[in-house]
């Protein structure tokens, strides 16, 4: 139990909704382990109240906070400084106080790459397929480019939003590598990839019986394929269950969640943090051990 005093410093997460977030679970576990006089709390902030909320967090002396849906893009104009990484992604998920005001970055890229970097794969010969073209997909695109993937295919259901997604990369170094396709092209493309990544919320709790793709398409994947679902609840998702049944390597979103959170906490505390404690707290909360 945290002993709250007048000296306890505030960290948190803003979003709408925010009730589902597991960030308080893992962040407070790490804070307790480190015996730091901090507490991490969720703040529900409606879109129309974002600017007022950001000013209020500064007024009450909040040290830093995470940003989740729907504020990752909308918060950018309200910050005094944004890192080049966050500018490229076009989204901020971590904010902290500096001498000139709020500074924002994006830790999702490193979180996404955490389970992939240790693998013995020649990423320069892999053309990944990303399912979805929302905010999470943007961090995945940048991460895959950092791995060295020469081409990245993104599939979306809404043609207008898909075109907007494509256009948003036109003045970046990733413009030539990125190709977008309508969702109905998946059956033609899936045989060409050995890395399939779901960035959509399809299959997330409570709609755990859903999958972003038909199970028959999983059968068309190469035996060398990796199926990566950014969803961490349920564990595993329907998508990952089907991939595992085929004998494929599967990765869920739990390590990504812990890693991006650990990077954020290191920024706020300015010291190393125990990612293993954070991961364990998540697994315990989700009854995975």
Short characterization:
The protein contains eleven helices and twelve strands. By secondary structure, it is α/β, with parallel strands linked by helices.
Main features:
289 residues, alpha/beta, Rossmann fold, 2 domains, six-stranded mixed sheet, six-stranded parallel sheet, 11 helices, 12 strands, 19% strand
Structure overview:
With 289 residues, this protein is α/β, with parallel strands linked by helices. The chain folds into two domains: 9-106 and 255-285, Leucine Dehydrogenase, chain A, domain 1 (Rossmann fold, 3-Layer(aba) Sandwich); 110-252, NAD(P)-binding Rossmann-like Domain (Rossmann fold), CATH 3.40.50. The chain has eleven helices and twelve strands. It has helices at 23-34, 50-59, 84-89, 108-113, 135-147, 159-167, 186-189, 215-218, 238-245, 254-269, 275-285; strands at residues 9-15, 38-44, 64-67, 81-82, 94-98, 101-105, 129-131, 152-156, 178-182, 195-198, 226-229, 249-251. The strands form two sheets. It has a six-stranded mixed beta sheet with strand order 2-1-3-5-6-4. The protein has a six-stranded parallel beta sheet with strand order 9-8-7-10-11-12, with helices on both faces. The two termini are 22 Å apart.
Largest sheet descriptor = 6 strands, mixed
The average pLDDT value, as a whole number, equals: 95
Determine the number of helices (DSSP H or I, runs of at least 4 residues): 11
Low-pLDDT regions: none
Rg estimate, integer Å: 19 Å
Report the end-to-end length measured between terminal Cα atoms. Answer: 22 Å
CATH architecture of the largest domain: 3-Layer(aba) Sandwich
Which CATH top level class of the largest domain fits?
A: Alpha Beta
DSSP strand count: 12
Residues in β-strands, percent: 15-25%
SSE run:
EHEHEEHEEHEHEHEHEHEHEHH
Please, what is the CATH homologous superfamily of the largest domain?
Answer: NAD(P)-binding Rossmann-like Domain
Overall structural class, as computed from helix and strand content, comes to: alpha/beta
CATH level-3 fold name of the largest domain: Rossmann fold
- How helical, in percent, are the residues? 25-40%
Task: Give me the side-by-side strand order of the main sheet.
Answer: 2-1-3-5-6-4
Q: Any idea what the shape is?
A: globular
| Total discrete domains | 2
């Amino acid at each position: 139990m945290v002993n709250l005093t007048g000296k306890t410093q505030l960290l948190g997460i803003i979003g709408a909704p925010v009730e589902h977030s597991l960030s308080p679970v893992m962040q407070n576990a790490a804070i307790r382990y480190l015996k730091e006089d901090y507490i991490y709390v969720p703040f529900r902030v409606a879109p129309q109240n974002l600017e007022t909320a950001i000013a209020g967090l500064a007024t009450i002396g909040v040290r830093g906070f995470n940003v989740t849906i729907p504020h990752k893009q909308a918060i950018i104009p309200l910050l005094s400084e944004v890192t080049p990484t966050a500018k490229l992604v076009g989204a901020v998920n971590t904010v902290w106080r500096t001498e000139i005001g709020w500074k924002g970055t994006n830790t999702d890229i490193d979180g996404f790459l955490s389970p992939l970097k240790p693998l013995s794969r020649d990423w320069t010969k892999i053309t990944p397929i990303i399912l979805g073209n929302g905010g999470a997909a943007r961090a995945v695109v940048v991460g895959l480019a950092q791995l060295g993937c020469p081409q990245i295919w993104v599939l979306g259901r809404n043609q207008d939003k898909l075109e907007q997604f494509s256009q948003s990369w036109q003045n970046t170094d990733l413009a030539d590598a990125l190709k977008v396709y309508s969702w109905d092209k998946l059956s033609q493309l899936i045989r060409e990839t050995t890395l399939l990544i779901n960035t959509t919320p399809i299959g997330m709790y409570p709609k755990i019986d859903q999958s972003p793709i038909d199970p028959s398409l999983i059968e068309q994947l190469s035996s060398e394929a990796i199926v990566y679902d950014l969803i961490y609840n349920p564990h595993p998702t329907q998508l990952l269950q089907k991939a595992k049944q085929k004998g494929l390597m599967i990765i869920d979103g739990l390590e990504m969640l812990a890693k991006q959170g650990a990077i954020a906490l290191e920024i706020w505390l300015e010291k190393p943090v125990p990612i293993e404690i954070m991961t364990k707290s998540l697994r315990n909360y989700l009854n995975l051990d």
